[in-house]
Amino acid sequence: MTELDEIDRNLLRRLAQDASQSAGALGRDLGLSQPATWRRIRRLETEGIIKGRRLRLDVEKLGFGVTVFLGVKLALKGRVSLEDFERAVVAIPEVQTVEHVLGLYDYRLRVVARDLADFERVLRRRIMTLPGAGDVEANVLLSEERLPGPL
């Protein structure tokens, strides 16, 4: 495990809140020079602590008013490979995340849709027709809070 000092932790907290901040702006907040901040960021990337930076879109403003978490249990575990299911499900544009999980369901999906009727269409025509798809449980997202990470 990589040793992180308090400056590294503060840097990671700030980047987790807004990864678009410049090294200069971050350095000013942390009491570091721009080059020193940039070197720390590069080290954290090289060591694999920072895996990448993501663009977070406001799906509601893009016309997707419904987010649903689906638990999917494969019906034919021995006949359909996990890779076949995963390859098919990631090709569905409305599916934002695919997580292989341990528990009652085999997969957890985050699905966006324009409205409930659109979600029903995605569920019936795309998800339920996936290779090996069996039982499905849907949970509609009512609200979401972004909590700080473990740092």
Tell me about this structure.
This protein is α+β, with helices and mostly antiparallel strands. It has helices at 6-17, 23-30, 34-46, 82-89, 116-127; strands spanning 66-74, 95-100, 107-113, 133-140. Strands 2-3-1-4 form a four-stranded antiparallel β-sheet. A hairpin with a 6-residue loop joins strand 2 and strand 3 (107-113). The mean pLDDT is 91.
| Helix and strand element order | HHHEHEEHE
Proportion in β-strands? 15-25%
- N-to-C span: 15 Å
User: Strands across the major sheet, in which order?
Assistant: 2-3-1-4
What value does the Rg take, in angstroms?
Answer: 20 Å
Secondary structure class reads alpha+beta
Q: What are the segments in which pLDDT stays under 50 over at least 5 consecutive residues?
A: none
- Counting DSSP E segments of at least 2 residues, the number of strands comes to 4
Global morphology: elongated
Biggest sheet statistics = 4 strands, antiparallel
Determine the fraction of residues in helical runs and give it as a percent range.
25-40%
